[in-house]
Amino acid sequence: MQIEDGKNIRFVGVSAMPATTQKVRQEIAQIDRLIADIEAKPREKRLAWSTLLEELKEERELLSLVILNRRMEATKKVVSLRRWRDGPWERAEA
């Protein structure tokens, strides 16, 4: 994946990850097309591509997990910083 004007996130030791879920889905679609192309080859030629095919499947699985993780994080309740700072006891004093 390429870095595009700071739209991607960099992690130490990890390639850049698209900042938006839409970009991750586009990457998965591109990987799906590559996998389909490799799997459409005759068996003899497919064996030569087997390592790449496994790497692509792993990459697709990781990106799917990124989307799942983002979906799970999105369902979490947002913390009220004011309540966190002041605590629930603020109401009891009033």
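Above is the first protein from milestone M3; the second protein from the same milestone is given next.
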Amino acid sequence: MEQGAKIMEQGAKIMEQGAKIMEQGAKSMEAMVADACKAYGVKEKDLLGRRVDEQTGTVILLTRGGKRVAWRLGREVQKLTRVEATGEPEQKSKK
């Protein structure tokens, strides 16, 4: 019985994501990339590559730091570190 409830809950989440994707429908590819960059805290100049699957609302980003991440509309993610985003080491404070 619990498994059935979990499946129903997952189905509801998928339907909700689908509704968000449909709502986004007219959003351009560049706007989706900008949203993904904002979610991960990455500047577009630090991207080596990007790909958008408009059917699923998924954006794939490849950063200068060599990190490959996938973002979906409405998904909350952890921001990338400076090294992951730019490939540059963290700056040490001078004392």
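Note on the second protein: The beta strands are 47-53, 58-63, 68-72.
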